[in-house]
Structure prediction request, 71 residues.
Amino acid sequence: MTDKVQELYDAAFAVLPYLTASTDATDYISEIAGRARLSAGDRLRLEAEEADKRDAAIFRLREALTNFAAG
Prediction:
């Protein structure tokens, strides 16, 4: 397996935790209930951190796809 293929696999697996299915409603509801107990500032900080992590994973995947396509 080449380095580009390995990079693509690693980037794709890094995105998986951020994907949800329509059957994941129970986990989503419990997560929302947990966030309801946080203060508004803590909730916004948590959401910003999660968005940054998700964006970084997506950018990593896009870069890996570009490198893979470039050959």
User: Anything to note?
Assistant: The radius of gyration is 16 Å. The longest helix spans residues 40-70.
